[in-house]
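Revision sheet: structure tokens.
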Amino acid sequence: MKILFVGDGSYDMYSKAFFKAACDMDDVEADLLEYGNMNIKSIPNSNYFKRAEYHFCVGPDVNKINYELLKRYELKKYDIIFLYSAELIYPRTVKKLKKQGAYIAIYHNDNPFSEGAKKYRYRHFIKSIKFSDIAYAYRKSNISDYLKYGAKNAKLLMSYYIANKNYYVNDDDIKINVPDVCFVGHYEDDGRLDYIYKLLEKGIQVGVPEVWKGVCGARENLVFLADTLNKYNEILNKTKIAIVFLSSLNKDTYTRRCFEIPAVKTMMVAPYTEDIAAMFKNGEEAVLFNNAEEFVEKINYFIKHEDERKVIAENGYIRLKKDGHEVTDRLKSIIMDWTLKESMDI
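Predicted:
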């Protein structure tokens, strides 16, 4: 079967991850239409026009991407076109593909429907939903949103870890030094900084990405982690406790780190939600907190109780592997949905 993955190729954990997983599968021919050069981080500040194109998702460069997608389908007639957060793809392009017989799967890891979402950024994506064969929701709450905007079929497709990027490394083989407690994620004004401050006040060193300097500045016990994108796996392996915070903007009830942290056999400390508690047993496979007091208390305890911490980390790893949360597992479910539709159409 032939699959075309479409999306921003700037980061390996998104459309590229699915593409590489497909390349490793038997009987699958995979192609990738990426437009990493149209990511705002790739466009020079001096190129105002191209930055405006990316920002408003319209313009000659965006037109070229849409033309290339139509051209590729015409040449290869892919069985599946998987649009991963493809905000630059016009709805009229998706409509044309459907008229030509394409099977369209659509997915977004952010929440295009949240109150704080920039609607102009998501307008093409949202208008394309009704032309897709199946809309995959990153979070359960978005299933009803997809159906509201005309999806013929909508189902959950959770995030994942990537086996060759998120993996256990023996501590002796890691040359970097990091604090015992780290949060390796983005800043959001949702109270997560207050939680970090409470740990600092207890004398607990905490590592956060270097980009946080602009938010909180230098503080006692706060360590800024350099090059977290390239050293992500090393940092998660080296730290004793890895924190998860959930995006309020996206209304997340779990996140990608819920899989990446157990994958490296590090103990995960995360907010209590039904989704996370269903995946990992609280106190046995992960440590979940309900408020700031619990957060500080549990981290302070497990820093001092290494044997218990290691057991929980190992159990989380075993549970992760048993349940199957790798990107290839997600890809297999996408292919299965296509197979079922094909069998029903015969």
